[in-house]
Structures are given as C-alpha cells and as structure tokens.
Amino acid sequence: VQLQASGGGLVQPGGSLRLSCAASGSIFRIDDMDWYRQAPGKQRELVATITSSGSTNYADSVKGRFTISRDNAKNTVYLQSNSLKSEDTAVYYCSAQIMYYLDDGSPVAIRSWGQGTLVTVSS
Q: Is 72 helix (H, G, I), strand (E, B) or coil?
C-alpha cells in the first residue's frame, strides 16, 4: 500500500495550489484521510482531516482558505489551498488510515504516509 502526493510548487502570496494524494495497492477500505505540514524548524502539524463519510476538520490557521476533499472511487484526497501566505510554506504530507489484505487473506489496518510535497509561498 502506497500514498503518492503531488501538486506542490512555488506560488506567490495570495495564489492557489491544489495538492493530490492517491493511495494504491490491495486496499479494502480507507477511513480518515489527512493532510499535515512541516515548516522548516517546526514540528509537523495537522492541517485538515476528512472522514470516510465526508466530515471535515481544519486547523485554525487554514480555516476559510483551505478545503479538503476526497474521491473514494479513486482512493484520492485533495487539498485546495487558496489565499496562500508565506507562513503556509512547508512540506505537505498526506496520511490515511487504510485497511488492506495480506497474501493469506488476513485484514490489516495501518496508518500510511505519503512522501511529502513542497509548497513554497514567496514573491
């Protein structure tokens, strides 16, 4: 099971980016999907969460500017980031609670992480 994040880049203050993260493998079910970020010299922080039924939660610092969504048919989570600020500069990581099957048919639940995608907000 893998998570592959994409969509980061350089954007000017006030600009927008859309991050994507796709899960692949022998997946049975994906529960919560999340976006975290880690700025230079800071701890990783939770940015947004979406449950399997679509309920969302956001860090105060991004409320009203970021939107998390998911496409269950594609096992993909998105983060639409608008009105970006310099303080949004960070490596963004996706994470998901995934249930999959081992070769012997046994179900296993894991917390999986993507590789991170860099978002730089600068003029």
A: helix
Look at residues 28, 32, 9, 26 and name the one whose alpha carbon lies nearest to residue 90.
9
pLDDT in tens, 69-115: 999 999 999 999 999 999 999 999 999 999 988 889 888 999 999 99
Which amino acid is located at 123 in the chain?
S
CA torsion angle 78 82 86 92 (round to 10): 0
Q: 92: closest CA among 59, 123, 51?
A: 59
Decide if 74 contacts 22 (C-beta within 8 A).
yes
Residue 44 CA to residue 50 CA, distance in Å, equals 18
Helix ranges, 9-118 (H): none
Mean pLDDT of 61-70: 98
DSSP three-state, residue 74: helix
